[in-house]
């Protein structure tokens, strides 16, 4: 990754992978027993993806400033250049992209 991203971007990407993986662990359906992390380089961006075979449960409450959780996707949106969640079967994919040279 260091060939494409700056040190700060690598730190941001690491944080985003941690947050996305944590969401899979905390919010995935009980039937999913594993997830996969994928890193790709295409065009002018590096993309990190967390793949899960389950279905995330939707959050039922809004996080407050004093909540212990609920800010993961907000952090990903703040640090990544682009991000999203693809819920198309057969798996759920949460992803974040980082532009090369940003």
TrEMBL record:
InterPro entries: Anti-sigma-factor_SerPK, HATPase_C_sf, HATPase_dom. Gene3D superfamilies: Histidine kinase-like ATPase, C-terminal domain. One of its GO terms (molecular function) is protein serine/threonine kinase activity. Keywords: ATP-binding, Kinase, Nucleotide-binding, Serine/threonine-protein kinase, Transferase. Residues 5-89 form the Histidine kinase/HSP90-like ATPase domain. This is ATP-binding protein. It comes from Streptomyces triticagri.
């Amino acid at each position: 990754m260091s060939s494409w991203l700056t040190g700060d971007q690598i730190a941001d990407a690491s944080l985003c992978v941690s947050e996305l993986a944590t969401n899979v662990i905390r919010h995935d359906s009980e039937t999913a027993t594993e997830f996969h992390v994928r890193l790709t380089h295409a065009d002018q961006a590096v993309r990190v993806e967390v793949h899960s075979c389950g279905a995330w449960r939707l959050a039922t409450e809004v996080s407050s400033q004093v909540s212990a959780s609920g800010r993961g996707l907000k952090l990903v949106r703040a640090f990544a250049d682009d991000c999203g969640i693809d819920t198309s079967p057969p798996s759920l994919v949460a992803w974040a992209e980082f532009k090369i040279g940003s």
